[in-house]
Request: fold
Amino acid sequence: MACSKALRKAIEILEKILLTATIKGLKRPQGADLTIFRQALADHHFNQDVEKLMQPWSITIQSKKWPCIDIKRALEKAQVNTYTRVGWIDAGAAEGALQKFLTFNTPQKLVLGPTGHKQSEFVDLFGTKTGQAPHEPGWTANDMLDYFSRHLQNGQELKEPRRITYYIYGAGTWKETDVWPPKAWRDGIGTWREPYPDSSPAA
Reply:
């Protein structure tokens, strides 16, 4: 155990050294990049604050106005199944999907894949692979259609288990959990990292 802890500490130190040597952080734009940067600032100057816009927001369903909080209560009461697929590298889509999973206590299937916005295109952070994105175990071409067929046809009332299937960069593997963050990630090692071999198994 002591050797294992010493090895873990040595790996952490080595990681910090490598990150410090290879990642220099943000730099101020220069030359042609400076012109593009200034144009971007001008383009976004009048953007609305989405959070402020949403605060008084409500929608009308069957001639009745529903504040956002009431929509949450209604969805949780109905226990409607939802299926969400997003890519880890699709801007804030993964964060939004995880917030949805954590916000709504409903039957949810969430898949976090190694893609950007285009679900079929593999985004390799290390630049060694290209082409078709790898799918999670058990995936089929009609995976999403099959999911909804189980719930929308013949008046079935099946409730899917809450689960997240996620791709692990670096390891190139898939795991599944019913909580977020996964249990093995909450051991003080780090948030976005596969547990070391001597850690408890991932959920």
